[in-house]
């Protein structure tokens, strides 16, 4: 299930990037005035009006795909298989593992302190290490 969600997300991002590119390639409404008198028509790949139809149709098709992918992601997110129990139950199940990890860390710190005291002369570990005045 997670594979399909990841695949749809990747497709969704690619379609969004393609829509951005197509929108940036399209001419504004003011650009049609110059091409109406023959300016730039010979240099265009699709002709004077062919590019507008092709780009606008491609943008509409990609927008439809984007919309359908958005609906699919919303459906998959709403109907994702859930673990049994509530959120509180799941937190309580993970809490004992965290407490065990904290206890292990405390034991490691105690062992480190014990190793420091091993090298000191007997009875010296409990004394304060300040210099008498």
Notes on the protein architecture:
This protein has a domain at 2-29 and 51-78. It starts with a helix and ends in a 15-residue tail after the last helix. It contains four helices and no strands. The longest helix has 32 residues, at 87-118. It is mainly alpha-helical and 133 residues long. Helix 1 (2-25) packs antiparallel against helix 3 (50-78). Helices cover 68% and strands 0% of the residues. It is elongated, with a radius of gyration of 34 Å.
Keywords:
0% strand, mainly alpha, elongated, 133 residues
Please outline what is shown here.
The chain has a domain of 56 residues.
Tally of contiguous helical segments: 4
Average pLDDT confidence is 76
What is the helical fraction, as a range of percent?
Answer: 55-70%
Give the low-pLDDT segments. none
Question: Span from first to last CA?
Answer: 74 Å
> Rounded to an integer, what's the Rg over CA atoms?
34 Å
Shape: elongated
Indicate the structural class.
Answer: mainly alpha
Secondary-structure blueprint:
Elements: H1 2-25, H2 31-36, H3 50-78, H4 87-118
């Amino acid at each position: 299930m997670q594979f399909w969600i990841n695949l749809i997300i990747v497709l969704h991002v690619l379609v969004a990037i393609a829509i951005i590119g197509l929108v940036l390639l399209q001419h504004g409404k003011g650009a049609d005035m110059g091409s109406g008198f023959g300016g730039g028509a010979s240099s265009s790949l699709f002709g004077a009006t062919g590019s507008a139809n092709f780009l606008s149709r491609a943008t509409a098709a990609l927008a439809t795909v984007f919309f359908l992918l958005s609906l699919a992601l919303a459906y998959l997110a709403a109907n994702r298989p859930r673990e049994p129990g509530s959120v509180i139950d799941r937190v309580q199940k993970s809490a004992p593992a965290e407490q065990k990890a904290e206890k292990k860390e405390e034991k490691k710190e105690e062992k480190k302190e014990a190793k420091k005291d091993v090298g000191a002369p007997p009875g010296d570990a409990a004394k304060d290490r300040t210099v008498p005045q």
